[in-house]
């Protein structure tokens, strides 16, 4: 990725990547829980409704995601993967899905991080 971002743009991009990664994990896991979720639409999302997704984070999922990331954000050459597996009563497990979030080196220098776009 281009490294000529100013410090504020880098900070904003890192914040975007962090929340995108954590929200991605929440969406993947919660979509597989088999529970129906109803939320009301809002024309003016709050600061916690990242990406216009008004789902409540499951604290255990957030904790495990942060632990897996170990303070490192997904970056070029460092992906984040979510594994959905099935565990049987006998203790066997089988991978059902693997979702990977990766970054590439493409960068549009004309685009600025804007909270009105995603938050």
TrEMBL record:
Coiled-coil region list: none
Residue stretches making up the Autophagy-related protein 13 N-terminal domain: 19-93
Top-level taxonomic group: Eukaryota
Keyword Phosphoprotein set for record: no
A Pfam family per the record: ATG13
Cell location: Preautophagosomal structure
InterPro entries xrefs: ATG13 (IPR040182), Atg13_N (IPR018731), HORMA_dom_sf (IPR036570)
Gene Ontology biological-process annotations: mitophagy; piecemeal microautophagy of the nucleus; protein localization to phagophore assembly site
Chief location: other
Function: Autophagy factor required for autophagosome formation and mitophagy. Target of the TOR kinase signaling pathway that regulates autophagy through the control of the phosphorylation status of ATG13 and ULK1, and the regulation of the ATG13-ULK1-RB1CC1 complex. Through its regulation of ULK1 activity, plays a role in the regulation of the kinase activity of mTORC1 and cell proliferation.
Annotated family: Belongs to the ATG13 family. Metazoan subfamily.
Protein name: Autophagy-related protein 13
Upper classification of the organism: Eukaryota, Metazoa, Chordata, Craniata, Vertebrata
């Amino acid at each position: 990725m281009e490294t000529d971002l100013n410090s504020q743009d880098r900070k904003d991009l890192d914040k975007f990547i962090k929340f995108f990664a954590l929200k991605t994990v929440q969406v993947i896991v919660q979509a597989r829980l088999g529970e129906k979720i109803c939320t009301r639409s809002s024309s003016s999302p709050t600061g916690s409704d990242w990406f216009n997704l008004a789902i409540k984070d499951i604290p255990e999922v957030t904790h495990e995601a942060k632990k897996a990331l170990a303070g490192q954000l997904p970056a070029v050459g460092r992906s984040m993967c979510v594994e959905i597996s099935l565990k049987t009563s006998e203790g066997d497990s089988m991978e059902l899905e693997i979702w990977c979030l990766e970054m590439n080196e493409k960068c549009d220098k004309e685009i600025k991080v804007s909270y009105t776009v995603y938050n």
